[in-house]
Each structure stands twice: as C-alpha cells, then as structure tokens.
Amino acid sequence: MTNNILEINNLSKNFGGLKATDDITFNVKKGERFGILGPNGAGKTTIFNLISGFIKPDNGKIIFQNESIFGMNPIKVAHKGLVRTFQIVKPFKELSVFENLKVASLTPRMNKLFPNESEKIDWIKHVASICELEEVLYTDTEQLPQGYLKKLEVAKALTVKPELILLDEPFAGLTSSEIEPISNVIIKANEKSGTTIILIEHRLKEFMQIVNRIIAIDYGKKIAEGTPKEIVENKQVIESYLGKGGGEIANA
Ligand SMILES: Nc1ncnc2c1ncn2[C@@H]1O[C@H](COP(=O)(O)OP(=O)(O)OP(=O)(O)O)[C@@H](O)[C@H]1O
C-alpha cells in the first residue's frame, strides 16, 4: 500500500503529430494540494482530460486509489471519487446556488453515500458554508458576480464528496480582489474535507501560495518537480517561461 492517491506512469497522448502529453510520470499523495505548471499550450489541460476520462490516453498508466482508471469514461471516474472543474463556468443561470448544488448531487455516488435525503441536504449546506456561499444560497446564479460563480464551481465538485478534485484555472477571468476569497475556499476545501486537490493556474503568485508540490511541464514533457521554492528557482522552468516571453515566474 502506498500513500499515493494518484499514480501517473509514462502517460502519453498524440494529436496527429503533436505530442500533447509526452511520457509524463508523477505521483500525488493523499491530502496534497498539488500543482501543474506550464506556459500556454504546454499540455496541462490535456493531462486533466486524460486523468478524468474526457479523452483516451495512447499509453501509460493511471492509477487512482490503487485501481487503474486508464481509458475509463468520465462518469465512471467521477463515481470512483475523482472529479474536475472547467476553465469556463456554466451554472444553470435560472436556478439558485442551492438548486445548482442539488443538481450536482444527482449522481449514483451521492445516492449511495446519502440514501437519506435530509442528510444529503445537510451535506450540501455544509459544502456551501465551506465555499462561503451561505449568504447567496437562495440567489439565482444569473445575479451573481464571477467570483461567486467560481466558488460555486468548486462547491459543485465538492458536493459529490470526491477524494480528488482537478481544478482547471479557478482564477481565470477574476480581478485581483476576487482571487483571494476563492483561493481561501480552495485551501479550506482541502483542509476541512481532506479532499486532495490538483490545481492548474496561470496566476503564479497565488498558485505558489496554494500548492505544496508542483510538476512543471513544457511541450508535453515534465521538466521539473518540487516544492514551489524549488520550482521558481529551477533553471529549466525559468527558461521555459522566459522563452515564451514572460518573466513572471521570477516574480512568483
Ligand atoms: N483535442 C485536441 N485536438 C488537437 N490538439 C489539441 C487538442 N487538445 C489540445 N490540443 C493541443 O495540445 C497542446 C496542449 O494543449 P493544452 O490545452 O493541454 O495546453 P495547456 O497547457 O492547458 O494550455 P493553456 O494554459 O493555454 O490552457 C496544444 O498545442 C493544443 O493545441
């Protein structure tokens, strides 16, 4: 038995001639806040798509909680407790936050975990409180600013009581003042519910403050692995960012 919740071995995916994921290997420990870093087009979202079953890998191994989920479809993967969010949030606009969370909870996994409806409702309210959505619980989502919608996206994922959440750019489209609350929600979701988190994010400063450990990728290949401090000092990581015209890694 290992302490790893996720083990990725020699994972590869080609799109035509393009190696979007090129022989990637890494492990994520249970309870970690793990980051995947890389410039635009490096292959980060493709890794999420492969792990969550949205696209089929060509080669490699994907082991989740000691079981292979390689090539498994997203519904089965979610049923096992591995869920993801998307860069673009798409709530049911005419429904309230609470109703959106109820819709998210309509899964076989939830029915199994909460056969009793009132316990399910209690859990949804608990998730809303972790995600700081209590004050807007019964507000239609079309009336909410983007910051709340991003919290709702995390809450929808957390509602199904997952073991692992893949968060794809939760800060995209947010102003600086909107980022801190969602950043706190991510940390709280991890600490209060014990859910392991893998994060992709371009806002490097905030990203580095959230994650405990990182892999950096470029052109589909892993180029570094380490703590945030080790990664920002890594020569190859700095070069991959500077090469793409951005010195932002140096300020992270
Ligand atoms: N379904 C697809 N078909 C063809 N090419 C794809 C597909 N999905 C991704 N790619 C290509 O694979 C490469 C990696 O894309 P990916 O979206 O994984 O990068 P990323 O690191 O997430 O980028 P960003 O930070 O801009 O979101 C890119 O060159 C992209 O154009």
From TrEMBL:
Swiss-Prot/TrEMBL keywords: ATP-binding, Nucleotide-binding, Transport
GO molecular function, one term: ATP hydrolysis activity
Keyword field contains Cell membrane: no
A GO term from the CC aspect: plasma membrane
Signal peptide: none
Domain ABC transporter stretches: 6-244
Organism superkingdom: Bacteria
InterPro entries: AAA+_ATPase, ABC_AA/LPS_Transport, ABC_transporter-like_ATP-bd, BCA_ABC_TP_C, P-loop_NTPase
Protein name, per record: Amino acid/amide ABC transporter ATP-binding protein 1 (HAAT family)
Species per Swiss-Prot/TrEMBL record: Oceanotoga teriensis
